[in-house]
Design goal:
two-stranded parallel sheet; globular; single chain; 19% strand; nine-stranded mixed sheet; alpha/beta; 9 helices; 13 strands; Aminopeptidase; 328 residues
Length: 328
């Protein structure tokens, strides 16, 4: 997550309850158990990718580093192995930072199956960079970034694999993994502008940020930033036929909507572009810390969440009309 979250963590002492939740939908609690996980996406695959992206060998995935390059290659190979095509000539959307680093988003593409709706796009995204190093703990300085944001990155990769296998998406989908989020959303800003300049018909964008740890059982499984700006949270719950998404007061209080990779797409396209997270300021203490490692991830929770999001995403991607709208 971008640096502002460090200040928020220091200020936060508790998480707030859900808001505007739909009583006609079944509550989906945070606790999961591997014996009860159902769905097409396997825990083993998720765990393998998180362990790789958050390994010491990738050295914290800092923009411009060898570790970031290794992460990009891993994502590209995952897309290739699962027949997910690049949207541009290659998978990489490259840009230059003020520090003269070359950054690159990794962008996969699955064309829609409907002859008309395929001209409309949905973006599912997350950032795959991290900060490199942090304050040493027992000689360890590598800030592995397992929850922030290997967790979101792996979710997007797994959904790309799923939709490619199913071939049931009416709209076209871009699977976008951003570089330089930690430097101020540089990758997503670059990609949003590029796609706007190419006149992409973008319907919705969802960014997934820190989804590797569960919330308390009496709270919604996740929350969506900018809840009041659109009907996205409500519609996704309807599509899922259960309440996966709720409202977090702290997200509004600290304006998290503007502090992750969804915001450039909202600014540039003026469409519903929001972030979904299960980090709520009370359930994870290793933000930008060397102990943000795979052993801190609850893989049962993460696998359950990724699978439960599938019908919500399918409902959005396959709706006959643009049902998700900004509030006037």
């Amino acid at each position: 997550m971008v640096k502002i979250y460090g200040l928020l963590l220091a200020l936060a002492v508790s998480s707030c309850g859900a808001h505007k939740e739909q009583n006609d939908l079944t509550d989906n609690k945070s606790v999961s158990n591997s014996e009860n996980i159902t769905g097409p996406i396997a825990l083993k695959s998720i765990k393998h990718s998180v362990h790789h992206l958050a390994s010491d060998g990738l050295m914290g995935r800092k923009t411009g580093s060898e570790g970031l390059e290794k992460a990009a290659v891993y994502i590209e190979n995952f897309f290739k192995d699962n027949q997910v095509k690049p949207y541009f000539e290659t998978y990489r959307d490259s840009f230059q930072t003020k520090e003269n680093f070359i950054g690159y988003n990794v962008v996969g593409y699955i064309e829609g199956q409907d002859p008309v709706l395929k001209n409309e796009f949905v973006i599912l995204g997350a950032h795959y960079d991290h900060i490199g190093t942090a304050t040493a703990v027992q000689g360890d300085v590598i800030a592995n970034g397992a929850n922030d944001d290997a967790s979101g990155t792996v979710a997007v990769m797994e959904w790309a694999k799923y939709f490619q296998e199913m071939k049931n998406n009416k709209r076209s989908i871009l699977f976008t993994l951003y570089d330089a989020e930690e430097m101020g959303l540089l990758g997503s800003r670059h990609l949003a502008k590029r796609l706007k300049d190419e006149n992409l018909d973008l319907y919705t964008m969802i960014n997934f940020e820190m989804i590797g740890v569960p919330r308390n059982p009496d709270q919604s499984m996740s929350y969506i930033t900018g809840y009041d700006l659109s009907n996205m949270g409500e519609k996704l719950n309807v599509y899922a036929e259960q309440k996966i998404l709720g409202y977090l007061e702290k997200a509004k209080a600290y304006n998290l909507f503007q502090r992750s990779d969804n915001f450039p797409f909202y600014e540039v396209f003026n469409i519903p572009a929001q972030a979904i997270s299960t980090f709520d300021f009370a359930n994870f203490e290793y933000y930008h810390h060397v102990d943000d490692e795979p052993d801190k991830i609850d893989f049962d929770h993460m696998t359950t969440f990724i699978n439960k999001m599938i019908p919500a995403l399918e409902g959005m991607i396959n709706a006959p009309n643009k049902e998700i709208k900004l509030h006037e």
